[in-house]
Write a structure and sequence with these properties.
Blueprint: H1 3-11, H2 34-47, E1 53-54, H3 61-64, E2 69-71, E3 81-84, H4 104-120, E4 126-131, H5 133-141, H6 145-151, H7 153-177, E5 181-186, H8 196-212, E6 220-225, H9 232-236, E7 242-245, H10 254-260, E8 264-269, E9 274-275, E10 281-283, H11 286-289, H12 292-306, E11 311-315, H13 325-342
Parallel strand pairs: 1-4, 4-5, 5-6, 6-7, 7-8, 8-11
Antiparallel strand pairs: 2-3, 9-10
Helix pairs in contact: 2-4, 4-7, 5-7, 6-7, 7-8, 12-13
Length: 343
């Protein structure tokens, strides 16, 4: 199987010659330059024989054009952060309008996609990272959105609709560029942040508009549920064919997810550190601190839990950028070893 065939088989829950694999991380030392980011991503995927590329624009790309002041470090493991939000009072939402998404920060991410597609030479699928409109609103204003959606829900929904249209514009431009799908991330669909009724009103309604813009146009479409205590069943019901979440440290486990959805599962690698019951870190992620044997065992446990069909091995979210090379190779070795054992 080539990489495209392997991914398509996994998405369709057919037999594969080995479990498809990818590990994604930010490339914060180079992600402000589209060409450099593209080169880094393609080189990383080729070196470790990954089965697809998840494009990794910096996490604030969707709000910089809306006035968020971004502090940029251009250093490994120092991703850009918000220096000043773009929304400071309820009336600021009234100025949020749809953007064409072909210039500014959006345009740079589109350039990066085009460069990546060119450099990869169609040797593996490439999916673009997009954020739910409510997630973009949260990046734009911070947690004040919890107050604003109650103080003036009409005005807030108006702004969400504008952000939705901007996201759809970006989606369409990426489809024209030739991406194979989208990694749709929501950072707000968890019970610690909103009630399910609130998410359906301010999240799901707009999420489905975005997904509808590409669900029949691309074949590799992932929904990513970010954070603990997530609304898994709500997100799993979206019209996508793959689900990604923090399965190694949040509900549900891979085994439980098999009973909740028939879609392809993307996960199995714990990207986060380990904490004790007091919330104190007791160990870095297994990719950072584990031995080769531990990483291989970690992978084999995931394959047993998820099964060998309808499963793509990957992290629950972005991995640390400074990983031991031996552990990256251990991931690759583990999926081939699993294929050999299965054969």
């Amino acid at each position: 199987m080539n990489k495209t065939e392997r991914i398509q088989a996994a998405l369709n829950k057919q037999e594969v010659d080995k479990i498809p694999l990818n590990l994604w991380m930010h490339f914060s030392a180079v992600d402000q330059d589209p060409r450099s980011l593209a080169e880094a991503q393609v080189a990383f995927a080729q070196k470790y024989d990954f089965d697809f590329i998840k494009l990794m624009p910096f996490g604030l790309y969707g709000v910089q054009d809306y006035g968020v002041k971004v502090k940029i470090f251009n250093r490994v493991n120092f991703p850009p952060v918000v220096d000043d939000y773009g929304i400071h009072n309820i009336w600021d939402w009234d100025r949020i309008e749809p953007l064409p998404a072909i210039y500014g920060s959006y345009g740079k991410q589109l350039q990066a996609a085009r460069y990546t597609i060119q450099l990869a030479k169609r040797q593996l699928p490439i999916i673009q990272t997009i954020f739910s409109p409510l997630t973009t609103a949260r990046k734009l204003a911070g947690d004040r959105i919890l107050l604003d959606m109650k103080e003036d829900p009409r005005l807030f929904r108006q702004a969400l609709q504008a952000l939705t249209e901007t996201t759809i514009n970006f989606v369409k431009a990426n489809i024209e560029a030739g991406v194979d799908g989208f990694f749709f991330a929501t950072q707000c669909a968890n019970h610690d942040f909103l009630t399910e009724a609130e998410y359906r009103e301010f999240g799901e309604y707009f999420d489905r508009q975005v997904i509808a813009a590409y669900q029949k146009e691309t074949y590799f479409n992932v929904a990513h549920l970010h954070g603990d205590n997530g609304m898994f069943e709500l997100i799993a019901d979206y019209p996508v064919n793959c689900i990604n979440w923090h399965d190694r440290w949040s509900h549900p486990t891979l085994e439980q997810a098999r009973k909740l959805t028939d879609k392809c599962l993307l996960g199995g690698i714990r990207e986060a550190p380990y904490y004790n019951e007091n919330g104190e870190k007791i160990r870095d992620s297994i990719l950072v601190s584990g031995s080769v044997a531990e990483v291989e065992q970690h992978v084999q446990q995931a394959i047993v839990a998820a099964g060998e069909t309808g499963f793509i091995l990957g992290p629950g979210c972005v991995a640390d950028q400074d990983l031991p090379e031996k552990n990256l190779y251990a991931l690759c070795r583990a999926v081939y070893r699993g294929a050999a054992l299965a054969g």
